[in-house]
Specification:
single chain, 365 residues, mainly beta, Porin, 2 domains, eight-stranded antiparallel barrel, eight-stranded antiparallel beta barrel, 4 helices
Amino acid sequence: MNPLKTNTAHWVFTLVLFIISNSVLSQSYDFYGVRSHMGFILPHSSELKSISETTPWGIQLEWSRLKATEKAWNNCNCYTQTGFSFNFYNYGNPGVLGNSYNLIYFTEPYLSFGNRLFYSFRAGIGITYLNQVYDAESNPSNTFYSSPISFLLQASLNVNYELNEHYTLSASANYNHISNGGMKQPNKGMNFPTASVGLSYSPERGPLEKREKSLINKNKLLYYLRLFGTLPEVEGNAIDENTRKLLIGVTGGALYHFTQTNAINAGVELISNGAHKEAADRMNEDYDHHLVNLLIGHNFVFGRITFNQQIGFYLYRPFPATSKDVFQRYELLYQAGDRIQVGTSLKAHGHVADNFDLRIGVLLF
């Protein structure tokens, strides 16, 4: 017998045993899925109505992992799948809206479990490539998006039914938003709800244990401080070219956990908007480019992932960039360690996106 072959077989066998045992001990289960989408576009201004009368459709491939450990459960008193999906959407208007290709990271906590019929909520963020964007000469009517590389936000409510120990059927209501975050104008953003059906496969999935609810965060008061920034575009004119200027801000406040996964928050943000300064200079006006805003909102906290929805009120806004007095801010944050948070934020006026930023912050106990 060839000792080399014997030795190789031994190590392969040992590696396979290690992988299997590690999977069992870690209690993590992989899922592979496919979904089909059908929906419609929400026109948030009269000029967009004519190009919005279409029926977008799409196909989605995804991979996710569920950790069934006590530690994972204690993060949010729930079990959560996290993973990536690749989506293709056809917007039903090839000459104006074209198609998009999207890579999304998502987190999906189970709202119920233990029965064959169960419910879940999904929040995702990703990058999208758009093959038909605004052009002043060749495509002037598409003011939804003007940058081929943009961002996509997604929220879904899912009804799931386990066909057997490997296959699960899902029906979902999805809300999707595309924006370039103010990096290039025009940027009204596109909102398109879809309904989807899907099938997922798990090679090896065990039962989910019913556990005691953790109350580690309940009735806890925390304070937060975050720094954020982006590079919004200032539109050109007959004299000046398009240019980008730095928007930088700081926000801070308090949040109170009334359950393990829910918290209310209130705070203020201070912003220095270089794009407003540049626009004021081009207008030969002496507007201050600083803003002061009041924010109140609600946090969904699922382990290290926080989804924050806030309503903002302008307290000081000298530059007349908008006639609105109120805006929305949506944050998606990941907690690295005990205190540090990193993530993104989208600011919008109603259905119209304003800007998209990157942020880093700290939790103060």
